[in-house]
Amino acid sequence: MFKIIHAQFLAPGIKRFVIEAPRIARKQKPGQFVILRIHEEGERIPITIENSEPARGTINIVVQSAGKTTHLLNSLDTGDEILDVVGPLGKPSEIANYGTVVVVGGGVGTAMAYPTAAALKRAGNRVLSIVGARNKELVILEHEMRAVSDALMITTDDGSYADKGFVTDKLRQLIGNGTRIDLVVAVGPIVMMRAVAEMTRKENIHTVVSLNPIMIDGTGMCGGCRVLVDGKSEFACVDGPEFDAHRVDFAVLVQRNAMYRDAEQRSMAEFERVAKKEAEDYDVERACAVASASRQGDQQ
Amino acid sequence: MSTTAKKSQNPLPMKERIKVPRQLMPEQPAEERAHNFEEVNLGFSPELAQQEAVRCLECAKPTCTVSCPVGVKVKEFVELIVVGDFLGAAAKIREDNVLPAITGRVCPQEDHCEGKCLLSKKVKPLGIGYLERFVADYEKRMGTHVVPNVQPTGKKIAVVGSGPSGLTVAGDLIQKGHKVRVFEALHELGGVLVYGIPEFRLPKQIIREQLDYMRGMGVDFETDVVVGRTVTIDELMGQEGYDAVYIGTGAGLPQFMNIPGEHLNGVYSANEFLTRINLMKAYKFPVYDEPMLDLHGKNVAVIGGGNTALDAIRSALRLGAAKAYVIYRRSDAEMPARAEEVHHARQEGIDFQMLTAPVEFLSDGKGWLTGARCVRMELGEPDASGRRRPVPIQGSEFDLPLSVAVIAIGTSANPIVQSTTPGLGTNKRGYIQADETSQRTTRKGVFAGGDIVTGSATVILAMGAGRRAASSIHEYLTTGEW
Known about the structure:
Chain A is built from eight helices and 16 strands. By secondary structure, chain A is an alpha/beta fold. In chain A, strand 1 and strand 2 form a beta hairpin. The longest helix of chain A has 39 residues, at 261-299. Chain A is globular, with a radius of gyration of 21 Å. Chain B is globular, with a radius of gyration of 23 Å. Chain B starts with 13 loop residues before the first helix and ends with a helix. The longest helix of chain B is centred in the last third of the chain and has 21 residues, at 459-479. Classes of the chains: A alpha/beta (300), B alpha/beta (482).
């Protein structure tokens, strides 16, 4: 069991947990992730590590509600426990002094991009960060990203905060301005990573993306996380999760990630049905309790 | 005095023993079991066990024991069954094998003890596997595992991986008085015994009981630790103060065929398919959260001819597959699967497409599998494995309609421990180099065995390596000599 020391929503549906996991905290490096399981019938899901504090023996993870498991996870609070947390998994980001690095974080992907941006900054790079979200509320880790970036650009799809548009608009501007870019690191939704890859491919800018395929064990056994890289099978859990964006077949990634969409929707619908019923039962119980209390009051 | 000179307790004269037929294992009827995950074999009664045991010829040179990777004293335990001392028989097996309820079920006896049984020259071999299983189950029913009492040595050993090889090392070393802690990457203990081998062949309850027994002997277990990531071998031997480490991390990543369409939705590796079913219980979705594709009324094929392939396809059948095929590029004679499993699979209605190989997976144009284009093969000259090489027959292509295909053609080395342990020697294929007798690696105090050394093999071979490693670790810890 892994204890939640602190839990806090960063944005609607996006929660940060500080978890007691001393072994993982000692070893975590930027770019790595954990797999967790929250109850005996639970699935194993890969989750981003945002940060760790080895001295305190804690790791920070950032979770966005998407399906049943992430909804359940985000219903946990300070003092609760998580059944299994294993990691840090995957190869760490390759940190070196490349020169100028553009770090792109899309949505909750920003949490994965942040430790890499910080490490790149520490390694002496000029770090230009672009953070994108659907709207103002969903912009996360702005303060943290600003602290490790020489410049931070923010976009929102609806223009409710900072500049309206997509992260690729900012990247296009940088390229158009003639900014020298030695490396682009992009973490976020597949469509975003693919768009970044297509843009930098033309410019011949080395680009790294962090992939999040379907995964079970995460330890190099099951092969579920295979991705097509240069026409060959590679495994995100041991060969990745970071890959050269220009070699990744994003179409296959999109297709394989949709493999269980029906099941995921069914699971979520069932979860919502049960949650709704419990809430209704609770309301009925409370109504009964209130009614009986008032009756007792009458009698007195 | 050697036991051979002792008067036999077996009442039957030698000539009569060969006339007793090999007792049949009671099993669930094929048509029933094809739709459930209950164990296929039901086990011997004491009467059946004794009836089988009297067939033993009590050879002066027991080839069964010699050919057993862990050296079980077959003749002696069988004689104890003859006289009705079933607990004594179990204790006798435990001297050499800490997992008898497991090996009695999954060991390929035809390649070891039973394959070398003298009876098999004339009639069917002694049912050694069935007898081993019987005494292990009997002992469990009686609840009388004897936990040995030993003097602590003060030495600490870390075992990496809780599969058959790691459990064997742990079981042997704890009985020598060492402290043993087993690290497991997954959330559940047992390695391939839990994620790979299905319930109908090895009930998980058996493994849980085995683990309880080992806990009772004092073995510590820690799940959710990926050695190489969560903690390194160097840290185990440094900060954590272990005197020796045994690496038994098991089978690695699945191999694929590199044919077109392998990335279609509906194409699984056997490891993923079986992990979803056995470890994650995906077939109980949505009670369990892990999903898998619905197999009801679907055509499913497995590619490969080993135990993993048969486990996968027989699971698919139990999950409602309308047609369940084994596609294997060689012939019956070359199939590496256990004979009993092939026999059971045929009884259950698995369709074996022998001398056949897929050349392409076919798509519906939207990313989903619709079938496999296959080619028939014929056997040519022997290849590097000594088996006759399958050669495609020109113009024999045909399409097999499929919704799910499971690839079970083997695995390659998991790189995590090797890539994070400086100085740990590996071979060309990335497996850990270990001495065949001592299981020593190129790093002082570090031993390895099982699939991470040999590549995919069997439970009993992994246990054999564990056995050798345990004795060699004990010697190293006692003498300090490397």
